[in-house]
Amino acid sequence: MKLALTQQSVEKIVPDSAIKEYRDVRLKGFLLRVTPNGSKSYYCELGRGQRIFVGRADALGLSEAREVARTYLADHFKGDDPRAKRAANALLPTLGEFLLGPYAIWARANQKAHAKNLDRLETAFRSFLGRRLDQLKAMDLETWKDDALQRGLSPETVRRDIASLKAAFNRAVDWELIAVSPIAKVKRPKTDPTPKVRFLTDDEERRLRVALDDREERMREERDRANEWRRSRGYPTLPDLRKLTYCDHIKPMVLLSLNTGMRRGEVFDLTWEHIDLANQMITVPAWASKSSQTRHIPMNKETLHCLSSWGEMSSADQKLIFENHLGERFGQIKTAWAGLLKQAGISNFRWHDLRHHFASKLVMSGVDLNTVRELLGHSDYKMTLRYAHLAPQHKRRAVELLDQA
């Protein structure tokens, strides 16, 4: 029986005592099959005896089922076998399997922050992990985007998450797991191209330096009391911190970051072979740099004094400049940093903002943006332009040319 299938007509069809088939007049080869027990299913007929099950009517909308059938028919007329293609699709990995499998292998070899990136993908898109790569639709991601913004995630965070997911799907396309990325047309939220840069005011920098000195003095006083207690009981004393320039790694780390603009990870990875005290130069190797480009940072007097003094306190066989109590690379210093900011009365300031502070001070002192870009190791000039508003003098000189005219 031929019928102009609509969603409403499909729902109104009443089962008969025998199996009934309703052929769509809009798409030849597309039909609805209704069994006596009330089951309604869509099929695509490629020829005599050649049918492909499309889906149940209670689980698949008519328009979507018709579109699937149209795809099968198009493949058939192009000479492809849609049934073989469907069987191949059934073997596609889920998003979770893809992220933990081939994509994780690629990320480990090509991304410095692969662990953090993979963890963020799994966390942000947890609801999609069980879907096959071809089952995620653009509308699904649009809904996720709206929900994420409603939950209070910043547009910049949502933008980065979508970019990361798109990059993963682009890998799947490159590896011919899927023909096209189903989320390619999803737009990322618009963000301010020149976001506000957080840097320390003169008073905040003074308070931070005072907090660093106060922290060191507290540690020295605690060591003095501990040694006095040990001497009174005949125990061997601990090293006298008053004979050392620094009590631990925090102050030299902060001073180094303030004066070089190095990223936290670059500071953690820095080794003594990267330090040339004679020529007052620090080399950030390509493998430790986010941009994978080697860069050289000259030392100012404070940096030179900091590293020279810290070097005198370090053991001769120490490779890393800063090592934790196990003699290994630091992973984080959140607790000490949070305590320092609290002591200084500074809020809304991350360790990474020390890098912004370095760049901002340079720009406000008249250093040109390209030099700042080289010192920061930005591969994209746009990243450095966020500091341009701190150097308004070049714009002022430009408009003053009108007076001369």
From TrEMBL:
Gene3D superfamilies: 1.10.150.130, Integrase, DNA-binding domain, Intergrase catalytic core. Residues 93-173 form the Core-binding (CB) domain. This is Tyrosine-type recombinase/integrase. Pfam families: Arm-DNA-bind_3, Phage_integrase. Belongs to the 'phage' integrase family. PANTHER family: PROPHAGE INTEGRASE (PTHR30629), PROPHAGE INTEGRASE INTS-RELATED (PTHR30629:SF2). InterPro entries: CB, DNA_brk_join_enz, Integrase-like_cat_sf, Integrase_catalytic, Integrase_DNA-bd_sf, Integrase_DNA_bind_dom, Integrase_recombinase_N, Phage_Integrase. Residues 231-400 form the Tyr recombinase domain. Coiled coil: none annotated.
